[in-house]
Design a protein that fits this description.
Organism: Linum trigynum
Protein name: Exostosin GT47 domain-containing protein
Strand order of the largest sheet: 3-6-7-8-9
Number of helices: 15
Membrane topology: Single-pass type II membrane protein
Helix content: 25-40%
Number of strands: 14
Distance between the termini: 70 Å
Pfam families: Exostosin_GT47
Low-confidence stretches: 1-16, 18-32, 42-79, 85-93
InterPro entries: Exostosin, Exostosin_GT47
Mean pLDDT: 85
Shape: globular
Strand content: 5-15%
Length: 530
């Protein structure tokens, strides 16, 4: 006899009753026939219902005292959690000849190894001061696989990924990009696999400006000598590169040895290129893309399973903060946030990273975020934090205190309607003790919290980087979105040339925060920051 199963609509209940009668009438039917009827019936269910599949469910059939367990798709009435279909994007790019890569071809410069592989060869305490980066560069930049005996993370697609390895991950993802071409004349954009962030990282302390700038100067000289540089009158405006560090590290404006960073992006040739980095400045030829997180799935199914788990996860804490105080930064609000968290009794969970121990553990960080409704994301040494994307990954609603921490940064990856997925509290209100974080968050209606959490969970595939070793292309990740954004940018430049306009106008302009934040919030809401 078949056990009762709750079905989502009248059609399915009708099929269920019919199947039950068939089985009851033909109790002695041969085993093979019984299984055939069941499979056919549930195939019909699938095509009639059009409901979302939930592979975590199961039902049982009892016959002659034995249980047959069917791990199959039952009937999950929740909306799909992966929000973008690869087929939709590919279909829109198909030209009249049926070429699905039309407008999406990318040519990758075959740089001499001194610009990438040689840079990271000496990885122990040289690429990032105080850190041995060698373990972080394993598994194509994903780092070592996370051991999780407590099953906080469940899947095997979790790695101790360092926040500075994005250039390595991106380069290996590019090697598997479906529309690569060896013919640069077909390319819509040209990728420059230079490890700019690692190069400057190894020269930030104890080196003069000449040493800091040497390889970058050599790079642009090499690029100018290639035929692709002058192609179609673009003069490099179809070229783009990745920085695994914040853009400020590559925007030094003079040659004073006491000043921070390198000047790669201040070179005249670089003004014709676009840089994608984990945090941008106000220059219009820079675009921010998400920091790498710990999760690198190989297929959509893994993402869906994680999304559903985060949607159902119990969250005992109203809010949490994972981070260290900034006692040497007088404008930092971190100390006040820590004090408010400690004073909120059982409403807030604090993971103090002052000693750095637990905060270096992906399991411990994700455990805190999973158990929290809201996650505080103040500025650190710069505007942005990798923690923002770890919290989104955990389904935790981020709370921002400065518009440049997210709203003016990740314009390709995060919604323009910032209130749909986050809470904004002006940092001056915290600094002047004019707001209680606990009281402010308790005022958010439960329905609004549920809506924001759903939006955050829907963002997960857009802010993670797929395992570069995966052959699957069944969901769009942060890499795909960044490539799409870059192709659209180059396409705009080409249209300007075709229309007889100067492609340099607006391509690399300083002070473009207003442009980057266009359409976010109310008119003039951010003017005081600009």
């Amino acid at each position: 006899m078949m056990s009762s199963v709750q079905l989502p609509n009248e059609k399915l209940r009708y099929i269920h009753r019919a199947l039950y009668k068939i089985m009851e009438k033909n109790h002695n039917i041969a085993c093979a026939q019984l299984w055939f009827v069941i499979l056919i019936a549930f195939s019909l269910v699938f095509f009639i219902s059009h409901d979302t599949i939930d592979y975590n469910s199961a039902f049982t059939v009892e016959r002659n005292g034995k249980l047959a367990v069917f791990f199959t798709s039952l009937f999950d009435t929740n909306p799909p959690l992966l929000t973008e279909s690869p087929s939709e994007t590919n279909g829109s790019d198909r030209d009249v000849s049926g070429d699905t890569c039309s407008g999406r071809y990318i040519y990758v410069h075959d740089l001499p190894s001194r610009f990438n592989d040689d840079v990271i060869e000496n990885c122990s305490y040289s690429l990032v001061k105080w850190f041995d980066m060698c373990p972080s560069l394993t598994n194509l930049g994903l780092g070592t696989q996370v051991r999780d005996p407590g099953k906080v993370l469940v899947e095997k697609s979790w790695y101790a990924t360092n926040q500075f390895t994005l250039a390595v991950i991106f380069r290996h993802r590019m090697k598997g990009y479906e529309c690569l071409t060896n013919d640069s004349s077909l390319a819509s954009a040209i990728f420059v696999p230079f490890y700019a962030g690692f190069d400057i990282g190894r020269h930030l302390w104890g080196y003069n400006t000449t040493a800091r700038d040497a390889l970058g100067v050599e790079l642009v000289s090499w690029l100018k000598s290639q035929p692709e540089w002058t192609k179609r009158g673009l003069w490099g405006r179809d070229h783009f590169l990745i920085s695994g560090r914040i853009a400020w590290d590559l925007r030094r404006s003079d040659d004073d040895d006491s000043h921070w960073g390198g000047k790669l992006m201040q070179l005249p040739e670089s003004m014709n290129m676009t840089m994608l980095s984990i945090e941008t400045t106000s220059w219009s030829n820079e675009f921010a893309i998400p920091y790498p997180t710990y999760f690198h799935p190989s297929a959509a199914k893994q993402v869906q399973q994680w999304q559903k788990r985060m949607k159902r996860h119990r969250r005992p804490y109203l809010f949490s903060f994972v981070g260290a105080p900034r006692a040497n930064m007088t404008e930092s609000i971190r100390g006040e946030l820590i004090n408010q968290c400690l004073g909120s009794r059982k409403k807030c969970k604090l993971l103090n990273c002052h000693s750095g121990s637990q905060c270096d553990s992906p399991v411990e960080v994700m455990r805190v975020f999973q158990n929290s409704v809201f996650c505080l994301q103040p500025a650190g040494d710069s505007y942005t934090r990798r923690s923002t994307f770890d919290s989104i990954l955990a389904g935790c609603i981020p709370v921002f205190f400065h518009p440049f921490s997210a709203y003016g940064q990740y314009i390709w990856h995060l919604p323009r309607n910032y209130s749909s997925y986050s809470v904004y509290i002006p940092e001056e209100m915290v600094r002047e003790a004019r707001v209680s974080i606990r009281k402010r968050l308790l005022q958010v209606p439960k329905a609004e919290i549920a809506s924001m959490r759903q939006e955050v969970i829907n963002l997960i595939p857009k802010v993670i980087y797929r395992d570069p070793r995966s052959k699957s292309e069944d969901f769009k990740d942060a890499f795909d979105i960044a490539v799409k954004g870059m192709l659209e940018r180059v396409g705009k430049v080409r249209r300007q040339i075709e229309e007889g306009k100067d492609p340099g106008i607006g391509f690399a302009e300083p002070g473009s925060w207003k442009l980057k934040m266009d359409g976010i919030g109310r008119d003039h809401e951010w003017d005081s920051f600009l």
